[in-house]
Amino acid sequence: MAVFTDEEWQSFGKVIGNPVLVRALLISALYNITSFRRLCSAISENIAFRWQGSATYARIGALCNGIINGMKDNLSRGNPVVLVNDGDVGGIFGIHLKEDMHLPNPVISIDSIELREFDYINIGSLIASAGAVPVVIKSLIFPAPLNRRPTR
């Protein structure tokens, strides 16, 4: 799962002049790398992103286009799209992908979750009465070999 800091997104946006377009282009480029595509060919993809600013139709559409274009191979196998963001726009993205873009694949779009590198998420089943899903975030930490002493 690729997670970029706000500063990285801003610097990308300054180069092109449109931060949302940059996100769409980067997501598309990331998922078109051949070795990465082979690695993830049999599993669903997860995309985590930070959301700032207005949720305009154009901004949401640009990011959704990048997601769909970048995940063509995975989507053609019927795998779901799993989106996780830190804003309050999860429902809007899910609706846009399903109703405006007519994506036939299942869409899971969760908001108000802040992730960092090496975070792993488990998404539980829908709790119908609450309209919510339980989410467990685990941070993966890799141990150092036992025969090495920490440097000071």
**Total number of helices:** 6
Average pLDDT metric: 75
Total beta-strand segments: 5
Proportion of residues in β-strands: 15-25%
Detail the poorly predicted runs.
32-42
Radius of gyration: 17 Å
Outline type: globular
Query: Structural class of the secondary structure composition?
Result: alpha/beta
H and E string: HHHEHHEHEEE
Largest sheet descriptor: 3 strands, parallel
State the distance separating the first and last CA atoms: 32 Å
- Strand line-up of the largest beta sheet: 1-2-3
**Domain module tally:** 1
Helicity level: 25-40%
Key words describing this protein structure:
152 residues; alpha/beta; three-stranded parallel sheet; 5 strands; 39% helix
Task: Describe the protein in words.
By secondary structure, the chain is α/β, with parallel strands linked by helices. It has one domain (6-116). 39% of the residues lie in helices and 16% in strands. It contains six helices and five strands; from the N terminus they run αααβααβαβββ. It has a three-stranded parallel beta sheet with strand order 1-2-3, covered by helices on one side. It has a two-stranded antiparallel ribbon with strand order 4-5. Helix 6 links the parallel strand 2 and strand 3 (107-110). The longest helix is centred in the middle third of the chain and has 14 residues, at 57-70. The chain is globular. It starts with 5 loop residues before the first helix and ends in a 13-residue tail after the last strand. 20% of the residues are buried. The model is unreliable at 32-42 (pLDDT under 50).
